[in-house]
Amino acid sequence: MNILLLGSGGREHAFAWKIVQSPQCSRLFVAPGNAGTAEIAHNIPLSVTDFLGIHQFILENTIDMVVVGPEEPLVKGLVDFLQSKPDTANLPIVGPSQLGATLEGSKDFSKRFMQRNHIPTAAYETFTAGEISAGLAYLEKQKLPIVLKADGLAAGKGVLICLTLEEAKASLKEMLLEAKFGDASSKVVVEEFLQGIELSVFVATDGKSYKILPEAKDYKRIGEGDTGLNTGGMGAVSPVIFADEEFLKKVEEKIVKPTIAGLEKENIDFKGFLFIGLMNDGGEPSVIEYNVRMGDPETEAVLPRIESDFVDLLKGIATGTLSEYKLNISPKYATTVVMVSGGYPESYEKGFPISLPSATERSVIFHAGTARNSAGELVTQGGRVIAVTGFGGELNEALANAFETVGKISWNKAYHRKDIGQDILKLMKSS
C-alpha cells in the first residue's frame, strides 16, 4: 500500500515508525512531517489544512489509504471534502467525519452527546456572551474548585481550574467578553470539578466495532510535581496500576459501548481513533473529554506496545472490517519522557543544533519539533522537540532506559521533567 500520513509531531513519527514495520506498506508519505519522519518515509511540504493540495497529491501518487494525525483538519472537514470528490469518494481514510470530529471541536456538543447517551461525566452548563449574567449567577451556586472550558479548539490551553469564586467570575468574563481564547471561547462550558486520578483510554473504531488499545497516563504540567503551566504533555506511562481489569471493564461497559452505540444511532460517521480522557474516582470512571485522534505524547507509549500488524489495524478502521482484526498487546511497560525547548510553553528560541545518540533496543527516539537547517544539521524547530520512550518488563526498568537515553541527548536550553512515572511507582509500593 501507498500510505499518506498527515501531521508533523511526535505522534506522527510514532505512527510512521509503526507503519513502516508492516510488510503491507510499500511507500509512506508524511505531510509535512519532521526530521525524524524524513529518515524512514518521504516528507511532503503540504499543510494538513491544504485540502486541495492533499487531494491532488493523493491522485498523483496513487495513495491507497490516508491516516490523519492531528485534530485540526478533521474538525475543518477533510474527510467530508475527500469523500465529496468522485475520485477519492471511496478512499480508505483513518479519521472521523466533520460531525464526528465535533466531539473534540465543541465541548458543548460533546457534553450533550454524553448526556443523551447516558455516559458518566461531570455536571455542566454552557453560556455565551449574551448569557453572562446567568453564567455569573450559576457560578455562585457551584462548589469550588470549578472548571471553565472554552467550547472550541484552543491548542490545549482552553481549560481553567478556578479555586475561588472571584477567579471563576473574572475568568468567565475574560473568556466570553474579552475573547481570552479567541473564537474558541465564544461559548464556555462551566463544569463540576472531578476528583480522582486521570488517565487516557484509546479506542480504535470503524463506527460499529471497536478495539480498546493500551491505556496511559500523561503529565501535562511543565514543572515537576505537576506544577506550573499546562503543556501539550511532558511524558506518559503505559500501562498504569490504577486501571486494573475491573476498572477497564467498567470503562468498556459504561463508556466505550454507549459511545460507539451513540455514534451509530445518531448516524455520526466515525472511522478513526477516539481518545477518552477519564477520571478514576474510587474505581468509578467518568469522562473528562473526548479527542478524535490519538493523544500526544501518549501515542509514543501506546503504539510500541501493539504487537500485531499496525497497518492491518488502520485498514480495519478505514474499511469497516475492524471486527476481523486480532489485537495483540505486549505486557511490557513503555514510558515516554518529552524534552522541550527552554521557555516552553511560553516563548522559546529555535534553531539550536541537537546531539542524538545511536539507537538501542531498550529505547526509541521520536522527533516532534525538529528540522534540518540549510547546512543539513538537526535543529530544534518547536516547543516539544524530542520524545524518548523506554521499554522494560518493570516500570522501573522502562523509566531507567528512557532517562538513560535522555541523558545522552543535548541542545542549548533543553529541559525535561525528571519525575515522570514517580507517582505511579509510589502507588505500586503502597499497594
UniProtKB/TrEMBL annotation:
- Write the Enzyme Commission number(s) for this entry: 6.3.4.13
Which transformation does this protein catalyse, written as a reaction? Answer: 5-phospho-beta-D-ribosylamine + glycine + ATP = N(1)-(5-phospho-beta-D-ribosyl)glycinamide + ADP + phosphate + H(+)
**Which Pfam families does UniProt cross-reference here?**
GARS_A, GARS_C, GARS_N
Keywords for this protein? ATP-binding, Ligase, Nucleotide-binding, Purine biosynthesis
* SMART domains, per database record: GARS_A (SM01209), GARS_C (SM01210)
Instruction: Respond yes or no to whether keyword Ligase is given for this record.
Output: yes
**Start and end residues of each ATP-grasp domain:** 111-319
Instruction: Name its pathway.
Output: Purine metabolism; IMP biosynthesis via de novo pathway; N(1)-(5-phospho-D-ribosyl)glycinamide from 5-phospho-alpha-D-ribose 1-diphosphate: step 2/2
- ATP-binding found in the keyword field: yes
GO terms for biological process? 'de novo' IMP biosynthetic process; purine nucleobase biosynthetic process
Source species, domain of life: Bacteria
Gene Ontology molecular function, alphabetical: ATP binding; metal ion binding; phosphoribosylamine-glycine ligase activity
Under the heading InterPro entries, the entry gives: ATP-grasp (IPR011761), ATP_grasp_subdomain_1 (IPR013815), PreATP-grasp_dom_sf (IPR016185), PRibGlycinamid_synth_ATP-grasp (IPR020561), PRibGlycinamide_synth (IPR000115), PRibGlycinamide_synth_C-dom (IPR020560), PRibGlycinamide_synth_C_sf (IPR037123), PRibGlycinamide_synth_N (IPR020562)
Q: What is the similarity comment for this entry?
A: Belongs to the GARS family.
NCBIfam families for the chain: purD (TIGR00877)
This protein is called Phosphoribosylamine--glycine ligase
